[in-house]
Amino acid sequence: MAFSLLLVACGLVAFCLYSTVQWLLTCRRRSLMKRQHGCLPAKQLPQLDPIMGTDIVMQNLEAAKKHGFLDLLRTRHATNGLTFTTNTYLRTTINTCDPTLIQNVLSFQFQDFGMGPLRRKSASPLLGQGIFTTDDEIWAHQRALIRPSFVRAQVTDFSIFGHHVDQLIALISRRNYEVDLQQLFFRMVLDSNSEYMFGESVGMMSENASEAATTFHHALDYAQQGTILRLRLGNLMFTHRDQKFRESCGTVHAYADKFVAQALEFRRQQSSFPSEKMDKDEGVRQKYVFLNELAKDTEDPIMLRDQIVNMLLAARDTTAGLLAFVFFMLARRPDVWDKLRADVLEHYCEPLTYEALMDMKYLRYVIHETLRLFPPIATNSRMANKDTVLPVGGGPDGKSPLFVKKHHVVTYSTFVMHRRKEFFGEDAEEFRPERWENLRPGWEFLPFNGGPRICPGQKFALTEASYTIARLLRAFSKVENLDPTDWREQLTLSLTLNNGVLCRLTPAE
């Protein structure tokens, strides 16, 4: 017995010695790495609790609750510079709006950074192992599956959008032209994108939408609200014990599973009767279904479900949010409305074509200006998967190399970066689409991210938004704002309006 205790004691001592030596070697290696690259620490945000950072977390949660988190970020950067650090729960976060630093994280040093285990754990109840939570080989495989589905032949096929925009215009008429456009945009985009992805519309534009469709729509909203809360809680996400959140995630998954089963059945039919299928379809254009194309490459139902939930949620929120912000600004800027409508009508043709949309230059300027002021993903982050050095971010001016320890996080704000006057002029806070006549920005304008993880569906989203805006400006001659308040952020996985887009539209004669 005594001998066994001695062995245990010796083992513990040996383990402690080994751990201490490894820690000292790591500290020495990191010290040498810093000296070799001339690294300086970034400015640090003053904190009452510099170890656990509870004051910072509480500030973030309180600001988000009051719809002011993005303003809080702007204030912090205005006071502490382009790059500064915060400490929360024994982990350092590097906060930045410096495009050079962001470019290195997302592109030049792509292999040094990833989503990280904390983000996967936070989002996994809803997003599983989808493209927005995974890294390395899993992510690369999923990206390869998805990318072919966004070739030009698909995204410029306006039959995907046309019927649903017709329904939107009809619904505005039935409501006597006074509506919350944001609410309608979310329903319309969910309908059109579910048809593209599932082969069948959810049906939210119908006045008699099914209970299943309505439940799914609301479950998507609640599930992503819970997901962003878990992300903000970080290591404290275990305190998030919301049964409705779990049930909402389950509702979303169950709805998607139904279409996954149909896609897998389609795959089996294609495999069993390929020649008969070819004869039957010869000379007939088949409807493109995103999920059926994915099912040709994998029969894993969980992978298919995770991918389709990731893509549907991203497509719905970013496109609907963009449309909402466009009309929020147009309702407050009759001069921009008149100029945009003239541009649309000058190039409009029936049926509307992709080439005609591309000729509407002012429409493109309006969309870019909206994406600048209200980027769909206003903040994002990456976790270092090894010790690395960024070329900027260190020192009091943020221009010296910066050492980033493994598992530390880089959080970047496109919202703050897009409003920097040195990039977009002294009037960077103003909505002025004309600035895009001569503006050719680089990494300081990132509405759809950058590097290898740039949004694969950006062309699809821009085409759908452009088509919808053009159709609405032809159908209506005027828009009047019915909301005297300024915009209030609703920041979940993407940026939308908490106060919606309350307006009155006048039908064109």
Automatic annotation (TrEMBL):
Keyword list, A-Z: Heme, Iron, Membrane, Metal-binding, Monooxygenase, Oxidoreductase, Transmembrane, Transmembrane helix
Q: Where are the transmembrane segments?
A: 308-331
The protein's matches in Pfam families, at most eight in alphabetical order, are given as: p450
Cofactor(s) needed: heme
Which Gene3D superfamilies does the record match to this protein? Cytochrome P450
Q: Does the keyword Transmembrane apply?
A: yes
Q: Which GO terms describe its molecular function?
A: heme binding; iron ion binding; oxidoreductase activity, acting on paired donors, with incorporation or reduction of molecular oxygen, reduced flavin or flavoprotein as one donor, and incorporation of one atom of oxygen
Q: Which family does it belong to?
A: Belongs to the cytochrome P450 family.
Quote the protein name from its UniProt record. Answer: Cytochrome P450 alkane hydroxylase
The species this protein was found in:
Daldinia eschscholtzii
